[in-house]
Automatic annotation (TrEMBL):
This is ABC transporter permease. It is found in: Cell membrane. One of its GO terms (molecular function) is branched-chain amino acid transmembrane transporter activity. The chain crosses the membrane at residues 12-27, 33-56, 88-107, 112-129, 158-177, 207-227, 247-269, 290-308. Its main location: membrane. It comes from Brevibacillus panacihumi W25. It comes from the Bacteria. Keywords: Cell membrane, Membrane, Transmembrane, Transmembrane helix. PANTHER family: BRANCHED AMINO ACID TRANSPORT SYSTEM PERMEASE, HIGH-AFFINITY BRANCHED-CHAIN AMINO ACID TRANSPORT SYSTEM PERMEASE. Signal peptide: none annotated. It is a multi-pass membrane protein. The lineage of its organism: Bacteria, Bacillati, Bacillota, Bacilli, Bacillales.
Length: 338
């Protein structure tokens, strides 16, 4: 944790200030709800960044873990009367178990085969939620899901609760990134053969990343259920998985901060499309899926490292040029004086 504070203390401080002030700068309830949705998505994308950017795995089923977490907490609180906090704990554990089982089953798969396996898992989960009507309510969904009674019951309290969870997830992930485990993940991402030759248990580390990612998505799903108060299977399909994937790729797969920035960028684009659809009827429907797919292709073609690593690289090059110019100027001044 000390290394995280030393390396990311300033960035995390700026993040905290922006997060705390946002509801007061944007006091409108609509923008607060947008901030809440961004926070929920950020929890998922940070976990997905651990899987893709560190462990080097492709997952197209992240929305499935999101849905499992949401329905787990919703069922426990509405049908069995358990407290929402118990539901949220279960919303982390149950998707984690599913991720463990799936991770063990597909441990030998890589590349497109892994992507197809997670895609199939996402379809199975969405169909299961839709067809298991006695428990999940089927296509009609569930209603009267209670709010989480922490910090009160208002929109503002829910905002701070969700972003407090985002902060914990962010700190945990940054700590992992700067630990021995993070170095092992980076070695696996660069070359699994080289990592294995160094004594790293590649399968175990990949499975751990997959489970943690599933748990993060489950926590976010549980919070989503308690925030919305209603659920239906529609948000937990391929469309949302592609959206999560786009957020990570746009921000930068190898950057935890990139996952957060990518989430902000894609959500702002999504809100922009919604606003434009009021004036341009052709932008209604599933146009956002096409837009996100196009963004994903363009980023992969022209900026595969993502926004945050590209900006960091440009900043470092600029600093290096300024330092070199300053040293050259000092050398010329010394030469002139002699």
């Amino acid at each position: 944790m000390k290394q995280v504070i030393q390396k990311w203390g300033k960035s995390f401080g700026i993040y905290l200030v922006l997060m705390i002030l946002f509801p007061f700068v944007m006091p409108d309830e609509y923008y607060r709800s947008v901030g809440i949705i961004i926070g929920l998505h950020a929890i998922v994308t940070i976990g997905l960044c651990l899987v893709m950017g560190l462990a080097g795995q492709i997952s197209l089923g992240q929305a499935a873990f999101w849905g499992i977490g949401a329905y787990t907490s919703a069922v426990l609180t509405t049908k069995y009367g358990l407290p929402p906090l118990v539901g949220l704990v279960a919303a982390a554990i149950v998707p984690g178990l599913f991720a463990f089982i799936l991770g063990r089953a597909i441990a030998g798969l890589q590349g497109y085969y892994l992507a197809m396996a997670t895609l199939a898992f996402g379809y199975i989960v969405q169909i299961g939620i839709t067809e298991w009507e006695p428990v999940t309510g089927g296509a009609s969904g569930m209603i009267s899901i209670p709010r989480v009674p922490i910090f009160g019951d208002s929109e503002l309290s829910m905002y701070y609760l969700i972003w407090a969870v985002v902060s914990c997830v962010l700190l945990f992930s940054l700590n992992v990134l700067n630990s021995r485990v993070g170095r092992a993940f980076r070695a696996i991402h660069k070359s699994e053969i080289a990592a294995t030759s160094m004594g790293i248990d590649v399968r175990r580390f990949k499975l751990n990343a997959f489970v943690v990612s599933g748990m993060f998505a489950g926590i976010s799903g549980g919070l989503y259920a308690h925030y919305m108060g209603i659920l239906d299977p529609q948000p937990f399909g391929l469309h949302e998985s592609i959206k999560f994937l786009t957020m990570v790729v746009v921000g930068g797969m190898t950057s935890i901060w990139g996952a957060l920035i990518g989430t902000l960028v894609i959500n702002f684009i999504s809100e922009g499309l919604i606003a434009m659809s009021e004036f341009v009827p052709g932008l209604q429907g599933d146009i956002d899926t096409i837009v996100f797919g196009g963004i994903l292709v363009l980023i992969i073609m022209f900026m595969p490292e993502g926004l945050v690593p590209r900006i960091r690289s440009l900043y470092e090059k600029s600093r290096a040029k300024k330092t070199k110019a300053k040293e050259e100027l000092q050398r010329m001044e010394r030469k002139a004086t002699t």
